[in-house]
Amino acid sequence: MTEHSPAQTIAINVLTSLRQIEAADWDACACPEAADGGRPLDPFTTHRFLLALEESGSVGPGTGWDPRYLVAELDGMTIAAAPLYAKGHSQGEYIFDHNWAQAYERAGGQYYPKLQIAVPFTPATGRRFLTRPGFEAMGMSALLQGAVQLASENGLSSLHATFCTEAEAIAGASMGLMPRRTQQFHWVNDGYATFSDFLASLSSRKRKTIRKEREKAQDFGGTIQCFTGDQIQPEHWDAFWIFYQDTGARKWGSPYLSRQFFDIAQETLRDDMMMVMASRDGQHVAGALNFIGRTALYGRYWGCVEDHPCLHFEACYYQAIDFAIAHGLARVEAGAQGEHKLARGYLPVPTHSLHWISDKGFARAVERYLEAEAAAVNEEMEILTSYGPFRKEHREERQ
To answer: Which of 11, 20, 186, 389 could form a disulfide with 206 if both were Cys (CB 3.0 to 4.6 A apart)?
Structure first.
């Protein structure tokens, strides 16, 4: 597939494995800001993270996530790439289209397989159209045209780009895709020097509640520690796999990630991770796993083998805030859903996706739905924000 311009031809290649592209070429598009040895803005679109999913069998044959990575080349240089997958279901996406699939198939169509530009199992906002600096508009246009062409030529129902940036959503809408607006809860660092500074921005009642929750969690009879990089040891993964399986069985029916993913993570991803472990009587009893970006901490997984009051809030939310403050990170993204996060300082923020549907009549119906949904999301975000835990004067300062 190619895109023609008066002077340039961009070639679009479809790869079935990240082993077919050099990590340096992929990361030149995914995380050019890390070329100086620093952290990537988005740890999830790096070659090493996506390859870990692939080589651990978490994506690929039998998973319903079949890699079809798009790579755009100009004069032999990789200028853009996209983590594209052929999907046999709608699991592990967190921006839900199950109702669309049911309606499409009731009307006599075949919704699956579809194409998905996404980071599997990862509801974290980031660029989905990865472009080398200087090729942003050209690269995104080429990738989007290539993805739509791939869907059309194979008779697929639809193409979706989930948890893209707002800028990508705007650009994609101008190219004819349908934008969708949903929401998550994020904690924003307003220049706090300590956790106490954060508490001071809250109303008195909320401040007292959080202090009590932290005290209860710390009194569970053991210790709570954070580990990063080389501090993370194989024994931690043995325990965390048990936690992850328990949570996965309750939430999704079966875990998305394989055990081998965590072994690979120990080798190639541990510098991107912050793990919280709660231990009692020499045994790890609960844990939370976070990924570290250049400006944000991303909460991903939690699990436990013992229930203790408020330990979940401490491990997932308050330890994350502590870490973000200590390392000067701008925000904590705590994953999908969860209005209970609101009382703990995590406020609603919009998330974005793009959608293309081959059937024009069905696309018009979805477009009407998305317009109504966006209005409802905007109203809900406004209401939830007004119920946030911050003092009135602090809310006004933020606005």
So the answer is: 389
